[in-house]
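Justification of computing resources. Each target in the renewal requires a structure prediction run like the one illustrated here; the chain below, 204 residues long, is used simply to show the kind of job we budget for.
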Amino acid sequence: MKKTSILGLAATLFVVLSSFLLPVDGYKVGDKVMIFNLKNVDNKMVALGHDATAKGYIVVITCNTCPVAQAYEQRIIDLNKTYAPKGYPVIAINANDGTRSPGDSFSEMQEVAKSSKYQFPYLLDETQEVAKTYGARSTPTAYVVKREGNDYILAYHGAIDNNSNDASSASVHYVSQAVNALLANKPVEITTAKAIGCGIKWKM
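Resulting structure tokens:
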């Protein structure tokens, strides 16, 4: 086989494989989202919709190791404290490949959840299907979904607020504004904002 043919075949194979490795565009606001069922740090399975009393959820795809995710950890904890009693609890999901990022292994997730006293599920997206389907590319990325019957509809996705470095300096709190609007039965004014963070460690 000629060298050029081999190179062409290799390039085609790379494109095909990349389509499985990289996330799709993901959901748009108004889309019905996938109902996932993933393992929590307590080794129990947790599904989107596990709380029958919830009006919706704040789903955050995050991780242990990214400095930006670490900077947002307390803000994620605070979102759950504020909105879980109002019907919008947090579900955190780690999609990083633990073999590429050992600090994001399941055992490390358990340690982080314990030391930080998470009062919300911290789930492992082992196959990375949820992150890819939702369209996450970086950590943290937030998704606010509202319940409509047995379905969950995307109302907001992207950054948690507009200052990844300093919570006290954030002037626009995207997730809070979205949930507050939903609770007041008003339209969400800002439905997406670019999430700043570390790229997800995809399986090779």
